[in-house]
Design goal:
Oligomer: single chain
Shape: globular
Number of strands: 10
Structural class: alpha/beta
Number of helices: 11
Distance between the termini: 46 Å
Order of helices and strands: EEEEHEEHEHEHHHHHEHEHH
Strand content: 15-25%
Helix content: 25-40%
């Protein structure tokens, strides 16, 4: 396995990004060692919040949410998935599978022995984060899902079909353009540059290219059975489970219904619809901070 590492110089002077990286080494195939970068900010004894990004972003997506949580006495933990951000990037698309992503993040979660977590997840952060909840329910005290899902091979929205086609056929994958187009507001040139920072050239984007094709939207996709098994656990998960989808995301529109109907912990929760695009962290960070903080406060 060839592994690419984004030069640290690419992350110098990024707008609104003062956070120092921490690193954890996970085991990969063929004895490979893969670095997972993450931010861990706030008081060590604060209620821990796991913030999981998706495709094709990185933990920069949470740059306005991390300080808001820390100001409220919470501990904010935001990893970069393998292939994204400061984390290592296997060079071949075939190096990336759904199950490997789950395994890598499971190693990270258990290696750091994170417990008492409140999860906020969006996009692939949910596809992977919810698998972590299903594998280690005892480590989570609450979940907030936003613009995500846990597909079981039952088809896709028109919005996702369009994204899948674009992601697999575009000669170059314009990361900053994608983040800007998926946000309801216009990102600044500096913010767009920060999203492009992890990818010096197209060779670093194998993970970003591969992710859309890994979503198990047909019965023939890998990981359908694993997601079905995860749903069986979530269908017994009775801790607080809140949906906070946005009002302007064609990719995941209506996806909150399945969670509200199937997860016991979703019953009676103050579910909300936020104003924003697919990357709602860019559009309503203060609302997200308030939702997370309120969930923790309700638990006492």
């Amino acid at each position: 396995m060839e592994i690419l590492k984004t030069p640290e110089s690419r992350f110098e002077g990024l707008a609104d990004w003062p956070f120092a990286p921490r690193y954890f080494e996970a085991n990969g195939p063929d004895s490979a060692r893969l670095r997972i970068a993450y931010v861990d900010d706030g008081p060590r004894d604060g209620a821990p919040v796991l913030l999981m990004h998706g495709e094709p972003s990185w933990s920069y997506l949470y740059r306005r949410i991390i300080p808001g949580l820390v100001q409220r006495g919470r501990r904010a933990i935001a990893p970069d998935l393998i292939g994204f951000g400061r984390s290592d990037k296997p060079a071949a698309q075939d190096d990336y599978t759904y199950e490997r992503h789950v395994d890598w993040m499971s190693q990270w979660l258990t290696g750091l022995d994170l417990t008492g977590l409140t999860l906020f997840c969006q996009d692939w952060g949910g596809l992977i984060g919810l698998r972590l909840v299903a594998a280690f329910p005892e480590r989570f005290e609450g979940v907030i899902v936003a613009n995500t899902g846990l597909p079981e091979g039952a088809g896709m929205s028109d919005g996702f079909q369009a994204w899948l086609n674009f992601s697999q056929t575009a000669p170059e994958l314009p990361i900053g353009f994608i983040l800007n187009g998926g946000s309801a507001r216009d990102l600044t040139p500096e913010e767009i540059a920060a999203y492009e920072a992890p990818f010096p050239d197209e060779s670093y984007k194998a993970g970003a290219r591969r992710f859309p094709a890994l979503v198990p939207v047909t019965p023939q996709h890998a990981s359908v059975a694993e997601n079905q098994a995860a749903w069986r656990v979530l269908e017994r998960f009775d801790k607080p489970f809140l949906t906070a989808f946005s009002d302007a995301d064609p990719v995941t529109k209506g996806g909150e219904a399945a969670f509200q109907a199937r997860v016991p912990g979703a019953k009676g929760q103050p579910h909300v619809t936020l104003k924003g695009g697919h990357f709602l962290q860019e559009d309503c960070p203060d609302d997200i901070v308030a939702l997370i903080d309120a969930m923790i406060a309700r638990r006492g």
